[in-house]
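To: structure desk
From: M.T.
Subject: fold request, one chain
Message: Could you run this one when you get a chance? Sequence is below, nothing fancy, just the single chain.
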Amino acid sequence: MFTFDAIGTQWEIETPEPLGRQLQQQILKRIEAFDTTYSRFCPDSLVSQVAAASDGGCFDFPDDSVALFDLYERLYTATAGAVDPLVGRDLELLGYDQTYSLTPAFDLVRAEAHNRGKATWSKDIIRDGTSLITRRPLVIDVGAAGKGYLVDIISEILGEVGFTQFVIDGSGDIRHSGESSIQVGLEHPFAPQMVIGVTNLKDRALCASAVSRRTWGDNLHHVLDARTGVPVRDVVATWVVADEAAIADGLATALFFTRAEHLAEVFRFSYVRMFADGRAEISQNFDGEIFS
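Reply: Done. Structure tokens follow.
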């Protein structure tokens, strides 16, 4: 098993045969390149350059941005703007900023941001293929689907060198490939030593999201409705199974705001959703069970 830390979390890659040193380094360099582009916590990243451009500009992203931004545009439309990669500024104002201050901005700073108007992907971004054109500083955050997309990228690397059986686990964003399914527990959001159910995963991806993953202050966490900039309250955890980890990851966020039936008009997936009152909702096509 190849274990390592990257993009602020722990990863595990399980394969029948150990990964060679060269392949390990290839994976780590690919993750580093992704981080150098999309991490708003890296001062020199491309998205940090977008955030620092006082008058905006034209920014050329790598080829992998096409699929990622395409997915975000689908999620943005399907959730009526609740999932928006420009939610980054709202996260910063709540304290989830580049320095991890975890201290909400002063009321005056928040008021000034409000007066400038909320940035939205449809209004403030002009996209031409891999290029983004902006007219003011914008804080891009790909946290809703970025880690899942990175899991897919690593999956492609393994496939290109001949691996057909593997499990990639990016701290809860999992992609499986192989002839035999694996059983994965659905971790209780407030009691990590417990599971609320299990799923059988085969040649698909499972991604989870929970309000307890990153919390600070008074009821502050990282799952925000981009339309309001306010942390969600009704839903506390989601689990999604889909063909690709990026889609599962993005939908795990979308389910905090949008009815599953509506998302199912656009995406193919199964899911479990847990509410603040303890109720759990499971789709009929979910291969697994919820414990009573």
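Reply (cont.): Residues 67 and 133 are 18 Å apart (CA to CA). Let me know if you need anything else for the meeting.
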